[in-house]
Design brief:
heterodimer; A: about 425 residues; Rossmann fold; four-stranded parallel sheet; 13 strands; globular; B: about 90 residues; alpha+beta; five-stranded mixed sheet; 5 strands
Chain lengths: ~425, ~90
């Protein structure tokens, strides 16, 4: 059974039944799912969660779905104590939430699992989305699993890893000559015309709730407590707000103590409408034309940007941004210190974290969680020119030693590792 | 002359179900006033008390967000198309 009781307008508070709608008919504000928290409190405990499925569905009471879920095993990804990276950055309690390892290799599986489940409950025959890539992969994968048609709209200049990563599941894949904001606008018009479940449009209130599981998991994995700081890569702002909501729900339900988490936004400098608004002290988001290698974050007109600014204020956090070279450096630093190959958005998180530590916004001994939301194999183009090249040799020992500069030192110390990097 | 305005479904309650409207305005601000005359109540859904476009409303002229043009001062001419689109989430 579901504890979701209805939809509520985030602006005027008007209530609606649970239907595939996303905008208030009276004030045009966006809708958010309401729950019977008293019922959830009776049904849920730490023990109940801990003995649940090893996926996002261990928190099903806090998601707006019934019992028959579309499941490709999203979530319950590792939370890693990142001592090496922490040392490099000057942090003693740094954790990485590694969402690279979801079934379709990004955090989007969390939201799409909920959206696809809801689409099926609403009797839609097709799922659809406007996507910067990760969502495309996840919608196509969940569509395949649910036996539903999938219509996926992407900007035409997307990275090959994301195009193929969606195409493999056999969706109808449409590359639109335009940026994400244009794809999104097209889809919002298509959603009016075709009876498809556009996960991030007409299913949006339900879809967005899936991101809360990134808060629940971190709190559970930290031994039932909220971190001091959360650093989150921000595109539309939805994930950022839902992590904040999730932590506060856990506290409200008595599962964790008071939430003192500071929420930090990290954006790519080439697309930073939220950070720019924060830094200029306004709540008015000015849209931008994105120009960054972090294509997964290239949303120039962030729908939840206004609310993200509110979350920053409420939590006492702040916002930062990273240039393209810093993003690549961040990706490399994470890989070289912790063995995690994240996509460009992960580089934005790490580079942003570095700035926040340098600025004194995040202190050495604070428990800090950096969210890594997608897999590096999807954005190979971003790093292909800045990583070590293979050393080409003939298949014999001589050739190897020559290439390694070991030839003359055959009797010397061969444990050294000279010149492997170019 | 006339400008075509596309009305999204959540607003059609105000327009009596109509999905498009025609206005004779040379500026976006005047276009919103004309819409208000045709469909009383529509403007308060699109603009805040100060008359600025709400943060959760996107307005496009010929496919371009008016915040890249001249906001409410964006000029309109015959044959232009104005789209009103609710802000929606997505990305990554």
């Amino acid at each position: 059974m579901s504890f979701a009781t209805g939809l509520r307008c985030r602006e005027c508070g008007r209530e609606y039944p649970i239907e595939p709608i996303y905008v208030c008919e009276f004030c045009f504000g966006s809708l958010e799912v309401s729950y019977d928290y008293a019922g959830i409190k009776r049904a849920l405990s730490r023990e109940k969660i801990a003995s649940g499925p090893r996926s996002i569905w261990r928190y099903k009471e806090l998601l707006p779905v019934g019992d028959d879920v579309v499941d490709i095993n999203a979530g319950l990804t590792p939370l890693i104590k990142a001592d090496n990276l922490g040392r490099a950055l000057g942090l003693s309690q740094l954790y990485i939430k590694n969402d690279c390892v979801n079934p379709s290799y990004s955090f989007k599986d969390r939201v799409v699992a909920v959206a696809a489940t809801k689409a099926r409950e609403f009797n839609f025959k097709a799922v659809a989305c406007a996507s910067t890539g990760n969502l495309a992969c996840s919608v196509a994968a969940h569509g395949a699993r649910a036996g539903m048609k999938a219509y996926v709209f992407i900007p035409a200049d997307l990275e090959m890893g994301k195009v193929l990563g969606a195409a493999i599941y056999g969706p109808t894949l449409v590359a639109v000559e335009g940026n994400y904001d244009e794809v999104n606008r097209l889809c919002s018009e298509l959603a009016e015309k075709y009876p498809w479940a556009f996960v991030n449009i007409n299913i949006r209130p339900f879809y967005a709730e899936g991101s809360k599981t990134l808060a629940y998991e971190v709190a559970e994995q930290l031994g039932w407590r909220a971190p001091d700081n959360a650093v989150v890569p921000v595109a539309s702002g939805s994930l950022f707000n839902k992590i904040w909501k999730g932590l506060n729900e856990f506290h409200h339900l008595g599962l964790i103590g008071p939430v003192k988490t500071k929420m930090f936004v990290s954006q790519a400098a080439g697309c930073s409408p939220v950070t720019t608004a924060y830094q200029s002290g306004t709540t008015q988001i000015r849209p931008v034309k994105p120009r960054t290698i972090a294509k997964s974050l290239a949303i120039g007109n962030p729908a939840d940007g206004y609310y993200a600014l509110k979350t920053i204020r409420e939590s006492g956090g702040s916002a930062t941004m990273a240039s393209d070279p810093e993003i690549v450096e961040g990706m490399k630093l994470l890989a070289e210190t912790e063995g995690i190959f994240a996509e460009t958005a992960g580089g934005v998180t790490i580079a942003g974290l570095k700035h926040l530590v340098q600025a004194g916004a995040i202190k050495r001994d604070e428990l800090t969680v950096a969210y890594i939301t997608g897999n590096g194999l999807k954005t190979l183009e971003a790093v292909q020119d800045s990583v070590v090249k293979p050393v080409l040799i003939k298949p014999n020992v001589n050739s190897f030693e020559e290439a390694m500069g070991l030839k003359v030192a055959a009797t010397g110390d061969t444990r050294r590792n000279p010149g492997v990097k170019d | 002359m006339s400008v075509l305005v596309r009305i999204p479904s959540p607003l059609r309650r105000v327009t009596g179900g109509k999905s498009t409207a025609e206005v004779d305005s040379t500026r976006l601000s005047a276009c919103l006033d004309d819409l208000e005359k045709q469909f009383p109540g529509i403007k308060e859904r699109l603009c805040d008390a100060k008359g600025q476009i709400q943060h959760f409303v996107n307005i496009y002229v010929n496919g371009e967000d008016v915040r890249f043009l001249q906001d409410l001062d964006t000029p309109l001419k015959s044959g232009d198309e104005v789209s009103i689109v609710p802000a929606i989430a997505g990305g990554q």
